[in-house]
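Known limitations

Files may contain more than one protein. Parsers should not assume a single record per file. Below, a two-record file is shown to illustrate correct handling: read the sequence, read the token line, then continue until end of file.
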Amino acid sequence: MNDWQRKSPLDWETYVNKMVKVAAIEKHEYEGWVLTVDPVSASIVLATFLENKKVSISVVLGHAVHEVEILKEGDDEMKQRLSCIFAPEESKAYSPEELEKRKNNLKTWLETNHIPVTEQGESGRTLCVAGVLTIDPPYGPEECSSSNEIILSRVQGLIQGYLEKQ
């Protein structure tokens, strides 16, 4: 086990969102922004931004790492770019105001259709339908959760239809 593998996850976390140079076995060197470090294998996931707005992802296996040198700290813009790398294309960030509007519109629509709905949680961000289904932000069919598959399917269908009419 090498020195890198002996570090704790808290030590590895200090490398996340930083530009590093990794010296590996057989004199290989890798440079990139650290997305994450696998806590089991100590493998480093590096992102490199290419000229054509594409991203190259490299994984340096933990057992092969000899030394990691921090070259540059990531600013807020870089942290945002790194956090969006694996986000789905259709995923859109909503402002708190937009989320509140979506929640209120959906709640009003559900109530208009005689579906019992309440707000849940300390900040009231989660909608609860009939006490058996929850809808989390951003309040789409994918954010519905219930142990009752029949109710889940029907409410997801209703919300999908509602969103298509918007």
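...continuing to the second record:
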Amino acid sequence: MGLLERLRKEWFILGIVLVIAVARLEPAVGVKGGPLKPEITITYIAVSAIFFNSGLSLKTEELTSALMHVKLHLFVQIFTLVFFPTAIWLFLQLLSITPINEWLLKGLQTVGCMPPPVSSAVILTKAVGGNERETHLRL
């Protein structure tokens, strides 16, 4: 695999690294109220564009067949909304007997109960060649 072919294949990860590097060099561009207006562009425009773009690439037949996977839907919902928060809670019970700061434990509990970010899940699933139609239905 040549270098150019590899760069084309890994365009998303390379883009993330590039954006992080630019943000490191010029952080004022992306701050709240800055030129990019992230409170508007990220919250409304970027997320909508990601879903719209992903939705355009899905075939109706694929989406319909994905809706029929009820067991998969149930598994993902139970894992995300019941199992994972319970596992985090048990882990935090173990950590609570250690000298770890109480506020750090509260922060871990909050993050453990939050669902995964939808937009990044869709993009990363697509980037690795995963089942994108199932991703749209799960999140």
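Parsers that stop after the first record will miss the second one. For reference, the second record is described as follows. The two ends are 34 Å apart (CA to CA).
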